[in-house]
Amino acid sequence: MAILIVIPSLDVLHLLVLYCADARVNIYPFLAARKSYVDNCSPLLHPKTEPLALKDTLQVQRADHDIELWEPQQMRNSPARAFRLITHKMESTFLPQFQADLESFASSSSSLRVVDTVPSPPKYPPKTVHVLDSSFNPPTQAHLRIALSALQSNAPKPQRLLLLLATQNADKAPKPAAFEHRIAMMRLLAQNVQNQYTTSGSAQGIGADELVAIDVGITKNPYFHDKAIGIEESGFYADPETGDQPLQVHLLGFDSLIRLLDTKYYAPEHTLAPVGALLGKHRIRVTRRTEEGNKWGTEEEQDRPREELAKGEREQEGGRREWAQSIEMVAGEGEAISSTRVRESANAGKWDDVNRLVGRRVREWIEEYQLYKESAAKG
């Protein structure tokens, strides 16, 4: 069945079309409007899909069998509220699909699956794929800054960004929020990154075909080197004509660099040899922790692991000197944000704090579904 929402006015319909353009949402599966209005707004709408019908309703697919009908008069007096309610209904339709993706992926032999791309996939294969791998529990403004910084770097173009969630983690057992909610929030993060990148100086003057596509992906591989291998073996980013693979640039925080170079993760030999699958072929971009009083030390102290490789001090453990050339250290920017802090603020109902830490749209999702209520202290 479906929820049928009557559009209360053309003002609300116009807001909805602009929202879908801004969010890179294909509006046609949801919208059926006056033909003249669709024609007038066609530059904002998805170019490859025809509208389902020509009538004044918004149809949103839903997994259960309820039907709601919102009469125009109920929302006419508050277009902003009507718009907010409608967009929440639209975004909620992602959850059943992401749940199905997770179930299908779990029973498959694949180690990587891209479940969504913002906007639609580009025409040309990338030369660089930036990989931001995290638990995204939830996505934060720190993730946003790391992604934007990488996209604005001098990496070979065209480039692409993969937001990657491991359904198995080397250190962390799954805890709230559920994976389908994390994927939905990753999609919101992808939209925010895309919007900010396209308005930045780095993106000025490029054509629509050159815009950076942002993928939302899931993997079964808990370790960085296995993720790099899985991305290659999937063939997802390979040039369809030549089979050439793009350069992968994995985006790490300093704490992740420490884990990457810790031999305890590489049983049974407990050497750094497996890391060669990543640092021997690809690159990592490490954001230093810069908050005052952080336990990781000064900039010089955080550069020490790279220097140890370069000087051959890790050779007895299987490390290679040349790997140091594949590690780029960059300064962190903005407020330091931990996901634990966000969860604690959400649990306490401090929504202004949550809004500052994750941005409006992710905060609205957390608040709408009460994702971290009573769970912050345990996560």
Percentage of residues assigned to helices: 25-40%
Give the overall silhouette. Answer: globular
Strand order, biggest sheet?
Answer: 5-8-7-6-9-10-11
Poorly predicted ranges: 1-8, 21-76
Element pattern in H and E: EHEHEEHHHEEHEHEHEHHEHHEHHH
Question: What percentage of amino acids are in beta strands?
Answer: 15-25%
Main beta sheet:
7 strands, mixed
Name the average pLDDT: 78
Short account of what is shown:
With 379 residues, the chain is an alpha/beta fold.
Topology:
Layout: E1 2-6, H1 10-23, E2 31-32, H2 35-41, E3 57-61, E4 69-70, H3 72-76, H4 79-92, H5 94-106, E5 112-118, E6 128-133, H6 141-151, E7 159-166, H7 179-198, E8 213-219, H8 224-234, E9 247-253, H9 254-260, H10 276-279, E10 283-287, H11 299-302, H12 304-310, E11 327-330, H13 339-347, H14 351-358, H15 360-369
Parallel strand pairs: 1-4, 6-7, 6-9, 7-8, 9-10, 10-11
Antiparallel strand pairs: 1-3, 2-3, 5-8
Helix pairs in contact: 1-4, 5-7, 6-7, 13-14, 14-15
